Description:
- It is a single chain.
- By secondary structure, the chain is of the alpha/beta class.
- Helices cover 41% and strands 21% of the residues.
- It has 2 domains: 7-116 and 220-272, Periplasmic binding protein-like II (D-Maltodextrin-Binding Protein, domain 2), CATH 3.40.190; 119-218, Periplasmic binding protein-like II (D-Maltodextrin-Binding Protein, domain 2, 3-Layer(aba) Sandwich), CATH 3.40.190.10.
- The chain has helices at residues 4-14, 16-22, 43-60, 73-82, 92-101, 150-162, 179-187, 198-205, 231-242, 249-255, 275-291, and strands at 31-37, 63-69, 87-89, 104-110, 118-119, 121-126, 141-144, 172-175, 193-197, 209-214, 218-219, 222-226, 266-268.
- It starts with a helix and ends in a 5-residue tail after the last helix.
Amino acid sequence: MINSKKRFIIEFLSFFVYFLFFASAPSFSKQVVPFGFCPKYNPRIMIQLYQPFINYLNETTPYQFEIRLSRVYEETVDKLGRGEITIASCGPVPYIKGREKYKVRPILRAVSKDGKPYYHGIIVVRQDSPIQKLTDLKSRSFAFGQEWSTAGHILPEYHLARANVHLKDLKNYSFLRHHDSVVQGVLKGQFDAGAVKDVVAYQYQSKGLRFIHISDPIPTVPIVVRTDAPKAMVESVKTALLQLNPKNLTHQKKMAQWDEEFKYGFTEASDSDYDSIRKILKVVEKESTVKGTTSE
């Protein structure tokens, strides 16, 4: 059986041809800038959704950006901290974790379809499941996302605890690497319930998912840079992305193939935008420390 590390390598190499034929042609006169992404989806989907975004930056800035993928969220944050990359896109929790350890800052955050810079975490079950509410999850199996995933782990664990359902009360639970793996696990009956971000939940809703909990609004995914990142590069990225208008037909066409989280534009971001998630993260970490919980 192929282990997860080998599977990651195989998936990544199998789509190397994508770069050769579909990525924007390299401009060797431009400075190359690695752009890191936390692995929300499997490598094939990550390339499919984010290479068009990178192509746009290459067309509208004097830089040649290149995608850098990692196996886990923490790896992307550490690469940013070590200076292997100077810019990255990760969720609120990875950003907060990175800020605690390294000198990083958010420069932009995505805007959702409703025009607001917020999204939601959703706990899902199969359409035919008898589970109706969070308290019904006691003695049931649960699929979380990665341990540093905001909507996939931190928020659902927080809300489960508020409903007096703790990890020890679950029949079993697993931390899966990608959001699409969580929904597939639920749909296939491998787990009774799972937690994902809203764009993924809605994508699979018609395929047999039902929602039993939707979180309060969460600040959207930030684009993060090292504090010593070249000012000219940072400003060029901000200018290119802030000028996008989802109501503009030309811009709509340009963003049509981007990830759902990115195709409605961007707004300025600041560290304080993520204070609400900091508070939730502290509660979850404190409870996990007290209960001695570990991932499986």
